[in-house]
């Protein structure tokens, strides 16, 4: 079992964010006799997955939907698959945009380097 601060440190997210995910019913930590949140290994793995979804710009509402479907059980497997496949297509589009932007930046950087090199030669 892990405390909220331990989970936050392991995942690189704030305890405030973990409380927010709890409020949004994305995670439900256990509580000890004093009411202190305690996270299991499986909840830690779940939060690693949620963190990756957030890092790839999946909206909280979609994560909440996925979480609810998961809680409903195996009969929602197709819906969960569809949701993840749709998000994967979004990520693929993001990657393509980043590659195109990177190529454009590479051209600009090369042009500036050539320009600066030419300026340095003419000043010598």
From TrEMBL:
The keyword DNA-binding applies. It holds the Pfam family MerR_1. Keywords: DNA-binding. The keyword tRNA processing does not apply. InterPro entries: DNA-bd_dom_put_sf, MerR-type_HTH_dom, MerR_fam. Residues 1-69 form the HTH merR-type domain. One of its GO terms (molecular function) is DNA binding. Gene3D superfamilies: 1.10.1660.10. CDD domains: HTH_YyaN (cd01109). This is MerR family transcriptional regulator. It comes from Peribacillus muralis.
